[in-house]
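Recap from last week: sequence in, structure out.
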Amino acid sequence: MGQSKSAADNGNRESERRRTILRAAIDVFARKGYHGCRIADVAKEAGVAYGLVYHYFKNKDELLETVFDTGWSGFVTRVRAVVEGEGSMEAKVRGVVDVAFEAYRVDPRAVKVLILEIARSPAGSRINRQTAFVDAIRLSSELFTRAKDAGELRADADPLLSSALLFGAIEMGLTAFVTGLADSRDVQALERAKAQIADTFLHGVLVGASPGAEKDAWKPETSSTKSKAPKPS
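Predicted structure tokens:
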């Protein structure tokens, strides 16, 4: 009994250390990029000995692969819940966009790494980002196939292409924020971007749809009522 508890405690400590190192890797990759990141930087960020990082990960490529696997699997799980849940095509499209932007709101550095660093790194070929995206597009296409059968999707719209266009719009919308083109500290800008992506996409595929977002709604407001989170010190 005592040995089982001790083994469980050790297992918990191991898992916690691994999560701490992985979190540190995300922060360093986001700040310095793949090529600028060193294992020593990750160890310092995590507050652990240099050699301990190698106990859990062979090198920074494996660290990046794990960041992708963890982040992407969580995203796909949430998208699947939306796609397989109840509701109209419009509600589900908005739900998928919500999942992506909520992920960015909660952990912008992780999303930055997923969007920018995975494709640029030598580890990207082993991660096979292309296959991961294809799987997500196929998953989402089920939503549009059912919508077409229900008469919600335009008759001339292809479900697979509709899914690819949706994910492309989401990725490019988030890219505007992770690259600094749009102000990620402006909470209202994120909300407007989310609404515009969903509204513009739905205007193109819904039967009898009309756009609901104002033109260029994602751009920062110029009035004094602009809502903006305080800048970090």
